[in-house]
Amino acid sequence: MPTPHIRAARGEIAPIVVMPGDPRRAARIASDYLEDAVLVTDVRGILGFTGTWQGRRVTAMASGMGGPSMTIYATELAREYGVEQIVRVGTAGAMSAGVAVSDVIIATGAHTDSGMTASRIPGVHFSHLADFGLARAAVDAAATLGEDLETPVRVHAGAVFTSDHFYLERPALTAALTAHGTLAVEMEAAALYAVGAAEGVRTLAIVTVSDHLVTGESMTAEERETRFDTAVRIALSV
Ligand SMILES: O=P(O)(O)O[C@H]1O[C@H](CO)[C@@H](O)[C@H]1O
Ligand SMILES: O=c1cc[nH]c(=O)[nH]1
């Protein structure tokens, strides 16, 4: 049944959703990876396509940017469409010196500064965790994929920082999070993991590093849209 934000009929969304932030990336995943992909929703320009990948029905749908947007779509997918698994395929800014532009991070957990977490269970510092089975499958898929690639992509597993801010400069915070093992910053993983915990949906975020907060290295806008092949392949494999 349509929701305020998704126009698809119930059966038009697959139980497995691959979810970039960017609607154009959802369209590209549908055209490059899915067979017989059909547009099933476009409310507010948030595109969703359902097709098949290796014989299994999969929906590629955007989340938009930030925790509130991700929370709306992930909650409606879980409650109204019976979605069982959501894997975010996003971009992130590296914080750690051990992570470079184009590397991929399997986000096993997500720290956050989001007010959404504080209001979800007041008084508790809620831990935002990926589904363990999905994270393990992603690590295994990355190893298998790496053997087939001419130019291997470096894949890391660890914590990211989910921030409400894209532009706020906080070098001390970046240094402290890095000193506590955080690999990169992005804007939706913690919200996705919170919905996963609340709604009983398996969730994982796999991000491609588009820029580096410390070195200043970065991808172009076009590269941000196109250079995420490894992350998508891992996401589809799990
Ligand atoms: O590339 P996506 O998936 O949108 O992810 C990152 O890019 C956006 C900011 O440019 C935020 O949504 C952030 O999380
Ligand atoms: O949220 C994001 C995404 C990419 N790069 C950043 O610095 N932040």
TrEMBL record:
Designated name of the protein: Uridine phosphorylase
Residue ranges annotated for the Nucleoside phosphorylase domain, each copy included: 15-232
Keywords: Glycosyltransferase, Transferase
Enzyme Commission code(s) on record: 2.4.2.3
Family annotation (Gene3D superfamilies): Nucleoside phosphorylase domain
Superkingdom as given in the UniProt entry: Bacteria
UniProt catalytic activity: uridine + phosphate = alpha-D-ribose 1-phosphate + uracil
